[in-house]
């Protein structure tokens, strides 16, 4: 049996992105009214008869007077049933009269109907002041809803006097909304009526916050309201009335969905979660309405009649789902009208529902040809057909296709998260389709290829394979289906197209995977391609707004204010995985719709370019290869070391002239043009605890984590099984960009570059990979060109503690470690680097300078090591473990996907680690990394750099660079530091400091940050008079007596906490 794994869309607000599709006509959109008027004019059935019925009701009301009362008191139905009915009748009659009259006015144009509608609304607005008794709020909600529907219909007309309208709005606010909001958080049908009423109020009052709040409530408990077989637990337990209450819950629930769709474009009718859906609940109701004797919850339950319920609901839902069973059940009792008690679906035959527009037939709308839609259909099809497919592959596919439409060698049974070889079948179908339609292909129009495509497609449609990994169900498979639809188009039968669309539409913005992140924007794009196939311009327009609206900063999932990207609430950096998919999905649509009415705003395009250049590209080596330190479980996928395509930046460049020179440079670098030079920058992603630093000849980074985020992704789908220590102060260095290529299979996962790690007897289990940080002090200070990093580290895996810092300059960087302590008896190492071995390794130690033969060894009193033109200079001689030898392994050790290669990989590997011994207590290290060095000149280079370690102790770590006249300090607690003969700085609290000065020792610039993110202000003083232009967030005060300047820095807060503040004199 097919297993659908589609969940409810996590709460996401569409408001602010675009205005309501049809003003505040949330129950009866203007297009619906226009369509019905056209059908009435043509006397087309069933609309004409339904309209005649409406007018009869409206005429009969003309002489009726109102029943408004000051206190709408309704006792509990099960306590005082007769009094309940009698008291309820006043509102029920008047609200229906107003709604009926308002609709008659909109369809006929006869003023007397509109005036009568206003008469009833004005009466209640003037007389009614409150509701009371236990059932007062419920009846007020479900009967009063008709007043709100009438108000929407009359709102934009001249019939309703402005003062009277304001009086009604005041009543809605003080009485009706009070009632709806009182019950909207209940667990049963009360909540459904409260939410519908409150949503109608919010629409009428144009209260976007309340619209959002109600939609959030509606979506929040759908999974609790509906069971997997369709029954509604809170309603069926009502005994003999269980079916009535099921209807009584579904009616307002589905009406709320309709209102939501008309206000936001969000289609909740498609909601599914763990086999549950609203459609199942409707089917359940119809089944036992027809066969009550089979109902297990009560023997002989009460059921509705064709003249009452649930026909009104089923009639309405037939237009939503196109379900023939609904239409067949109600067709002999049309036209349907429900004029009593509660008001959700009152005129379902007269006012049909459609999610795709209204044509002359009223249902199954197919839009007239739209020039932009046709252009986009052709454009996407041509892009798909541009893919290359080898003739030999097509020949093989034709020869090996089995009679049932399958291919040998594909495991069609295993649908687990680590398998799903069905991907190959999808790929094969796509390849055959391209070959069949592509100009110049020897197989274009080939009947054998056509037969093979339809044969393979029939096999898939018959089996409809569902993977345990939701991604395949909501992205992977739908993407192939919609691609086939666009490529094959008229070569598909109507039945094939319908069944393929059903699969493709699992990728929709209400699906579980469409969370506000990269996947939401991808899935919206898939849904838009399906809409293109259907030629549904309205849906395409709505989805373009969804895609454009995703390009924004977020404090939850999505693009962060520092231009990193979070996909989950573990706040792990996903910029180059989900974050690049997020960008690419936007770029694909932005570039394709740029010359159409669907084009995106310049503001959205510019923000995406900022994210692409300052987020994505700055987390890549020279903007062209993924920084290994950024990667999560994707580091265990073969091919992740590739040079990225120039397609996305090229498309961005063609959209605008914004930051064109920078985009041109990225394009040039990715194409391998040697005339291009990488730029220089330093950037700290404070929302992600990741630092990057680049110069034209090297790129490096530091990956950390804190109490604010987790160290690494979980090993989802069997990937990244050895990533335990890859967030522990990881410091990869790239000069060419291929230093770590295909290293994963042979990697020593307890020797991560930059990290200080206890060398365990074996790696912890895969369930122990993701850990949250244990320390707050994790951060950096940077002015965008230079920077330093501080990391108060405590391992959640082993308990090891260390204070680690990195200080970056133009031609070198300095790495300091102190207070390294471990209670475990295992050896502790700080790995300087582990990369591919490339050429000779030269060492300077107590025995002199000499090249190393291949092997692994302990080296004592080492001053420096040079490998692959990179120098590692130990400021204090160290005992190191050096390995330069061939190692073998397999991708499978870290990735158990069935598609992962199992063959043995052999690589020559260089590993250099500082040995802190077993159970170190207050161990340390201090070394320089020189990205361009050789054994003959490294000593001179170090001397010329003029690097001085000012401190490397538990309270402060600091470095000065005499060649650049600058210094950094990492204060783990307040203290005083002499930076220079003429510069003494005192900090009153933990923080990071950056100082630039001239040759005379006069301070030119200061930079500070708060790695703890706790402080609002940072106070420091320097023994110089600093007089400069005032900055809004910095105050300076010269203390003549003490001969120092006191500086108060107002620190960035909230989403900017951790960002540096720079003072330029």
Strand count, sense and closure of the main sheet? 12 strands, antiparallel
Residue windows where pLDDT falls under 50 for at least 5 positions:
1-23, 360-368
Going by helix content, strand content and strand pairing, the class is alpha+beta
> Which percent range fits the helix content?
25-40%
Straight-line N-to-C gap: 72 Å
Number of strands: 36
Summarize the structure in short.
Helices cover 36% and strands 20% of the residues. By secondary structure, it is of the alpha+beta class.
Protein architecture, described:
With 1065 residues, the chain is α+β, with helices and mostly antiparallel strands. 36% of the residues lie in helices and 20% in strands. It contains 27 helices and 36 strands. Strand 31 (991-997) and strand 32 (1003-1009) form a beta hairpin. Helix 3 (81-108) runs antiparallel to helix 4 (111-127), helix 17 runs antiparallel to helix 18 and helix 21 (518-534) runs antiparallel to helix 22 (537-549).
